[in-house]
Amino acid sequence: MKLNIQIYLKRSGFSLAVETQFNSGITALFGPSGAGKSTLLHCLAGLTRPDSGIIQLDTEILYDTRRKINIPSHRRKIGIVFQDCLLFPHLSVRANMEYGQTGDKQTRREQFDTITALLEIEPLLDRSMTHLSGGEKKRVALARAILANPRWLLLDEPFSGLDQSLKNQILVYLRRLHQATAIPMILVSHCPDEIADLADEVFFMEKGRLTARGTLTSGGVIDSACFCHSQDPKDLQKIKNWLIKNHSLRLETYRSTIRAV
Q: Would residue 13 be called left, alpha or beta, if left means φ above 0 and alpha means ψ between -120 and 50 degrees?
């Protein structure tokens, strides 16, 4: 499965121009704050409408300004997990997970049981959202997104606000989910451990453009000394340069054909 995009969007003081192809597997998307990472995910999910361009999932056109196609978000089957989870506070864990499920009753029950077991959510099912920890809420948000049967899953900094122990647990759950479902994922992250543990391919984004991409060639091992959690563009530039030198991350020159219509 491939996700091909060529989109342009302009806002006050910012423009997004991205032309690339995302492949199956897990893609890490990183770069400084304000680079447009979340905006890109919102465009893919149908939550933000680009000014012009095309978004195509395999042979299906999801968005095309020339042909006036704009498939609404609920029909794109592209799931998204936000930083703050956006769970329904008035519903139980079970009700949150069942929200958006499709298919016949038997299929829904089997999928629910499978995902509940994978994410070890059984003890939480009857709890209210107000009685969950941050890590538990992340697992419920992941479960709800997967149970909607997405063709692609977008993860917008799903580990933010978690301590290292909880982060490690969620990483394990994400690996389990991907191995069990084979759903392609795009992960926005600033953490080297997350990139090393999960990503098949890495993209670097700056000022609304994808400027480098590649894979980790040394068995997923990253020298953490070359990384930091700083959002300083200079620090992130050092990360990109290190990846280019030590892995297969290569600079990309995207065609300048993307323009507003």
A: left
